Amino acid sequence: MRNSLAIHPQLKNIPKEQTLCITGHRPEKLMKEKLNLLKQAIYSRLDDKIAQGYQYFLDGLADGIDYIVAEYLFQLREKNSNIKIIGVQPCDDYENFFKSRGYNLEHLYYMKQSVDILIQLSGSYEEKDIFFNRNKFMVNHASAVLAVCSRVRSGAMQTLNYAKKQGLAWCRLEPAPNLLYTPEPELWPAEQINF
Fold first, then answer.
1. Every domain of the chain and the residues it spans
2. Counting runs of H as helices and runs of E as strands, what totals does the chain give?
């Protein structure tokens, strides 16, 4: 049973059953030699969810998987105006976090300028649990989660585990599986429940 939490005012008219939350690793955890294959696998899962009626996508505006997904959804939105991307910024000083990690600030600016709704949460990136609070916010406003993460301890895995406890449909793609062959994107190995 999902926690009964207050709906954010900007999301009150957005049906949870049509909302998908995105979570995944940042750039340093992604293998460049498998990135194109991974992108195709992600795109295939997103296409499937859109075909199933998902129209709203919660994105945490991080560099890495969040950026890859946002970029693809922005392209799809050009042909399908029903697609709406909701960016959730975890803290007031998020730009400073990007700078401190050496992430591409242009990616952040592009996402913030291109989302349909931008939700700004408060606090500082140096506060404990600030990113997990953002991720919980997204899970609490969605009915499904697409997670691109290894089984190692990470924010994305923590978010996926929280989503499972909340009863969301979910799919986890391994960002760099030990593939002996190159499968079609829809056959990329995945764990999923009701996704």
1. 15-182
2. 6, 7
d(CA 46, CA 67): 14
- Residue 81 token pair: 């105006």
CATH 3.40.50.450 is the classification of domain 15-182: yes
Nearest to 139 by CA among 111, 113, 158, 121: 158
Distance from C-alpha of 54 to C-alpha of 8, rounded to nearest angstrom = 19
Each residue's pLDDT tens digit, 69-113: 999 999 999 999 999 999 999 999 999 999 999 999 999 999 999
Q: What type of residue sits at position 70?
A: A
d(CA 126, CA 182) in angstroms, rounded, equals 40
pLDDT tens digits along 109-150: 999 999 999 999 999 999 999 999 999 999 999 999 999 998
Compute the radius of gyration of the chain from its Cα atoms.
16
Q: How many Cα atoms sit within 13 Å of 101 on the Cβ side?
A: 17
Walk across the sheet containing 190-193 and list its strands: 117-120, 84-89, 56-59, 19-24, 144-148, 169-173, 190-193
